[in-house]
Amino acid sequence: MNHILRKLQVTFPQQASILNLSLCRATPSIQHPMWSTASINERQYRDMPTHGIGRWRHLLPKQASKKKKVKNQVKDLVSATDTAYGTLNVKVSGYDMTVVEHYSQYIHNLCNRLNIKVAESYALPTKSTEVLLMQEQGNKTFVDAVLKTHQRVVQLSSLNASLCPVFMDVILKNQPEGVQLSVQEHTEADYLLRFKARPELDGLIAQIYQ
Amino acid sequence: MAAPCRKMASRSFSRLLCYFSSTAVGSGACRRFSVTPIDRATPLGSTAADRATSPWSLMAAVCLQRLPVISADCSPIEQRFKQMLQQMELEKSLVSDHELRLLEDAEKMSRRQAADYDSDEEDRGDQEIMMTQDLEDTWEQRLKNFHPAPRVRADVDEDLSSAQRCLADSLVLLAEQQVGAEKLWLLPQAAWQEGETLRQTAERALDSVTAAGVKATFLGNAPCGVYKYKLPKAARTEGSVGRKVFFFKAILADGAPGSAPTAPLLWVKKSELQEYLKPAYMTKVDRFILNL
Fold first, then answer.
1. Are B7 and B196 in contact (CB under 8 A)?
2. B222 vs A164: CB contact, 8 Å cut-off?
3. Using a CB-CB distance cutoff of 8 angstroms, which residues of chain B are in contact with residue A185?
4. φ, ψ (nearest 5 deg) of residue B268
5. What CA–CA distances, in Å, run from B96 to A67, A144, A197, B88, B101?
6. A91, B141, B206, B261: which could join A182 in a potential S-S bond, CB 3.0 to 4.6 Å?
7. pLDDT at site B48
8. What integer best gives the mean pLDDT of chain B?
9. What are the backbone dihedrals phi and psi of residue A118, each rounded to the nearest 5 degrees, phi first?
10. What is the pTM (predicted TM-score) of this model?
11. Residues whose CB is less than 8 angstroms from the CB of residue A98 and which lie 6 or more positions away in sequence, other chains included
């Protein structure tokens, strides 16, 4: 009895392994209609068993289609509410360009750190001032120096009213020498100041309306 | 406590137009200011229901600061670093137009002095009336005639009541006021009255303590700090347990004080505040005065 059982036990795993092997070999070749759409990882071509082995992009989540971004979008003016100021222009101007630029960068970084939203940060055209001095002998004036006034603007979209005194205090205390600071509301006129004058267009418009 | 808070929330904020400038050698010790509040809505009157009877009475105080006029001196490490950077910049820099002209003139002079100098060969374009070296000499002369104002004046620094002391630091105004039974040094304060905002109370406090000519710009409608204290047991009644003081920040504008101030005033640095203020008051005030 026992030895018969043992024989059966011994032979059984061998038979099972043979069965398993045959099963494994059978599944790729048998294109069962139920199983053709089984999984995405199912390889498509039996002649090229490794076709598409490196595919991974189908596994990523779907991204929104990238539309071409419109550059230089006109940002809307934020109006003041009860607890926050509207669009503010922090204008930094001075003769020394490095100092002016570094100070405007400091203000921008400070806003980022205090989570104040900065709408834009741009530069206004440089104004040149010629200093003419009277000559010691004679009435003619001569050019003594050319001073260039550089202006940088940091536009804040909304400033919380409780944060305003702290922010103003910090930028005033860190104001360098020779730099003028001005905080004003942003108006349409300020926006139009950035554009160059177009004399031909103005001439044509004047002709139309005459 | 409920009434003024609600008032501040419902009032629309004034549109500030501030202009601050910082010049190295200014006429006075203060920066030039111009403030134009464009739209200042009147505060809504509180209804009888709003006025909750609270045992705390309100006061507003002003923290008037005079900003530094000149930049602070560099520490030894900063000086060495500055020198090193300047030297690096000099070594990396290119020759400027003026220096080029100087070199050309020197070369021309040396050619003229040479033995085989033919003046006809020399391509003389526009003969300059002034040589570049002479220009430099006139500039040096003008620099010698220029005398800048002294940065540090020891005698003015000692005078605690002058607003021109310690031009490199920011100063805070202290006034001696009668609080209860004793006179204390503190930031100018005034009691809040019905129908006005806390900021107006602070402005009133400033006007009452300083002279008429002093102009200050308030930095905002929101207070920057608060200090509450209970009245001594003898003075406590059912209706009043203590006082709450709200602090507002302001910057001193360029205003030459005309008449003498009504109360003794002090302009002190943050480091000197400890000598004049009470410890509990000092801890609260310390938090919002920036020592930059």
1. no
2. yes
3. 15, 17, 38
4. -125, 155
5. 49, 17, 34, 16, 9
6. A91
7. 46
8. 78
9. -95, 115
10. 0.72
11. none
